[in-house]
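Lab meeting minutes (informal)
Scribe: AK
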Amino acid sequence: MQMLCRALAALTCCIVLSAALSPSVRAEDYALFVNPGDIGIGVISGNLTAAVTYDWPRIIFWHTVDPWTPTFEAGIPRMYLYNDTNEDGFFARSEAAYTVYMDSNHVDWNLSQLDSGVDEVNGSYAQFGMTGSLSAFKLLDNGSMVEVSDWAVATFWFSITENSTVRSSSIGSYAVNGKTDIRVNMTLSINKQVNATGAAMEQMLQGGGSNSVFLLKQASREDDVALVEVSGRVDETDLGENLTHSFAETGLPMQEIEFAKDDWTVQAHYEWNSVSVCEANGTEVEEPLRSSYYTTGSGLVLHSAFPLPDVNSTVTMDTIVGIDESGFAGRMRDWVKESLPEILALSGLMVCGAGLSFWFARKRKKLAADTNQPKDKMGNP
């Protein structure tokens, strides 16, 4: 019995210690590793591990050393060319005139050479790109499909740096965190004109494990930033293509959605420009992005819409994905603290069960001993 109690105590101590001693990568131990593979490029940057897939512009990322880290995902599977029929400035799926698919079944993505090294501004850095010709598809009422081949050329550049960097737009400056952020720059070169006035970039966001909450940083009535909670567990896809929720953009250079747990512990984030930059004939014009969203039951779909420029124009914009280390540091200690009653109750039940088993074993042993003792003629031991 004493040995069993000691084993249970040791097991409980191991759980507490393993939770309290959450591993992390120290700043002085930082190293950047980039490994091109058959299906994507793997990146290990301190406490951030990510995979950029070749099948479509997508980043799957997680905490490098936290054993309970969820897996996050952000990608751009398609674009829509649309006409704003209700003139509200936001995109709804019912307004789509053409669909531009980004997956490898529709686009032959050409990969650039990996560029990596060290410089004074970025520290250790790595960047790589993927370029492909996009076609636009329109489904007619009779069920046939019309294709506008080579409608545009899209280029995505993925970059990560050891040092934080600052970028700017006409609205202001914004930071790309070093080590834990991946910046994605998209350039869209328009080759052909279609019967549409705007384009909407679809972004799919998903958090694994218990990260089903999205905190949307939106403008409030007081002209401040408010967090709006949205649950990815709610499936709004069957409510019709007219359904969408407008995103109230703040006056900041970047808009942001945070990946969070049910208790609002933020563990990752996704950011995108407040404006797109359109260049034509050597002149740059910034256009505001108008965003809308809906949930799918497993994540959130975000649409960022901008006016469709003329032929021979280019549109550029940035997105940023990354982890929030503060959402991991100490969280396992909190889990033990929050779960301590359950741990103690379970340990108590195990001890009681072991005690009862020990008591029954002793009773059976004593009964067997009594049965095997020599008996007198009256049957008494």
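Next up, CB showed the second protein from the same session:
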Amino acid sequence: MAAVPVVFNEVLNLQQLGVPETSIKHGLTSMQSDKWIVAVEPTQVTLVDLQNGAQVTRRPIQAEAAIMNPSSSILALRSGTTLQVFDLDKKAKLKSFTMPEALVYWKWTSSTNLALITGTAVYHWGLAGASDPVKMFDRHQSVGPNCQIINYHVSPDQKWCLLGGISAAAGGGVAGNMQLYSIEKKVSQPLQGHAGAFASIKLLGREDPAQVLVFHEKKAESAPGEPPKLYVMEIGRDPSKGAPFRLAPTNIPVPADAAADFPVSLINDSKNDVSYLLTKMGYLYMFDIHTGKTLYRARITQETVFCTCNQESTGAAFGITVRTGKILRIMLNPQSLVPYIMSTLRDNDLAIKIASRLGLPGAENLYAAEFERLIAAGQVVEAARLVASSGTVLRTPATIARFQQIPAQPGSPQPVFQYFSTLLESGKLN
């Protein structure tokens, strides 16, 4: 049996570090990046420095909520409608502002921008200068005041926003709604689903990267038992460069015992182009962004994992369990991914595509078989692209000899020249 393609483990326990259970249970703990965890307690704020062996610092600060900047020691505090931003290294207050209405959700969307969400609107507060928060857009009626906001994202090009929340569904259950907003066009598109996030991926045969939105869809009018779907669609591409990338929606395989379950977060691994979907019941789903296919599913905890973030250097996702305060890390297991796809999913085409894209082992025999199939079908360019994507598996003198043996078609260059030119498009000759 192939090893599982995802590694998930507990890397820290907040209760063992002295963080009170009440600070974990009541949403007073935040993790905006892999650098810091911040917990608000009645008379102090506890800072856990993840870059320095989980060193704990307690500061006598009274606040209702606190979140640390994802890349620097800058702490944002909230008490009522008053917001303050401090530089801990310089021991200086950078900014302060009193909001016109109460905040229901806030998040650093980057190292320079703090998103502030009220019952009616979304604001952005730039860290630079003395500027006040700027209203970006009003909340759509589908994510109105009765909707609990659980996530917010800004696209890599800073031109799109995604606001997501949950509410009680008619007839029971939990409904999910999202609002996709274009900053340039000032237009909103409502989406029915519980979680989504942006990613930038490199597509085969395309020079420009594709900025995609990956999201879960579960429509209120879905028939009983109808599975939710995963969508992957490119947004913001210049029409002059061609049609945007878009996949047909794929079914998400929800197990029978989780019919009432729903996602609480979606995190994109920008290093490996996979998505992790985490649910209230503690299920983990892993998807391939390029095909939308489900790569793996398992229940990794009996608790809800909240306050998730990603680690760009490794592609890992982190999250905090809602009751016990365990810090979980979820990572791709690259050595096992391709063998798992071949033996468990039995999808050789997907195995070749992922092995080629990520340069992973395990598909050597598949490369050879696919190469022979393409040569037999006269698909010279496709065969050359396969060789180029195989790393060193097929780049041998025997492969060159195969292309030399193929007769040229009238009006076309010699197949061996097509082979070399294809290799040069993706790198150098060995």
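CB comment: The chain has two domains: 6-333, 363-426.
No objections, moving on.
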